[in-house]
Specification:
Helices cover 39% and strands 19% of the residues. The protein has five helices and eight strands, in the order H-E-E-E-E-H-E-H-E-H-E-E-H. It has helices spanning 2-27, 82-99, 113-122, 133-142, 172-178; strands spanning 37-39, 53-55, 61-63, 72-77, 104-109, 129-131, 152-156, 162-167. A six-stranded mixed sheet has the order 1-8-7-4-5-6, with helices on both faces. A two-stranded antiparallel sheet has the order 2-3. The longest helix is centred in the first third of the chain and has 26 residues, at 2-27. The radius of gyration is 19 Å and the shape is globular. The chain starts with a helix and ends with a helix.
């Protein structure tokens, strides 16, 4: 009986350690220097970005070409992601600052249309949201989100170059610190 109890505790400990390791691997960048916010060196994003089209929650279509030639903050998010939801008010407050420089904020939801519509009814934002799905996951990886974690935010300059990227939740101060890059 005592041996069975000891084996049970050992199994629970191994399971907890494995879970912790899995969480760390899923949430830690491959390159520790790439953690958090990082300047992007001005590389150009995925060549097909400006040809992409996304459905918006209201059923209308958003052509990425309509945003070309302007600074653009792309935020990859999902309704089930607590840090994504937490940073949305900061993105909403950042939008007028970016618009004053001719730019726009775009939320790319990696989620289904119904959860996004229901979420936005409860928690509206002023910036446009597009339903990106698998296409958005692929785009995020092409823009530097190697692990596919959320949230993921990328600042593009008017010429389409990647100026800044961030894996994880952004803050208002961090976003404002990106403005001089434009």
């Amino acid at each position: 009986m005592k041996r069975r109890h000891t084996l049970g505790l050992l199994a629970a400990g191994i399971a907890a350690a494995a879970g912790g390791l899995a969480w760390r691997l899923a949430n830690e960048p491959a390159d520790p220097a790439a953690a958090g916010s990082s300047p992007a060196g001005g590389e150009l994003p995925h060549a097909g970005l400006w040809q992409m089209r996304f459905t918006q929650p209201d059923g209308s279509e958003l052509a990425m070409s309509s945003l070309r030639g302007r600074p653009l903050l792309l935020n990859f998010w999902a309704t089930w992601c607590p840090p994504c939801v937490k940073e949305m008010p900061e993105l909403d407050q950042f939008r007028p600052l970016l618009q004053a420089r001719g730019g726009e904020v775009l939320g790319l939801a990696l989620d289904g249309p119904t959860p996004v519509r229901e979420f936005l009814r409860r928690t509206p934002v002023s910036y446009p949201i597009a339903l990106a799905g698998l296409q958005g996951s692929d785009l995020g990886r092409q823009l530097g989100n190697d692990r596919g974690g959320l949230p993921f935010t990328v600042l593009l300059g008017a010429g389409g170059q990647v100026l800044q990227r961030k894996s994880g939740e952004t803050t208002a101060a961090e976003l404002q610190g990106w403005l001089p890059l434009l």
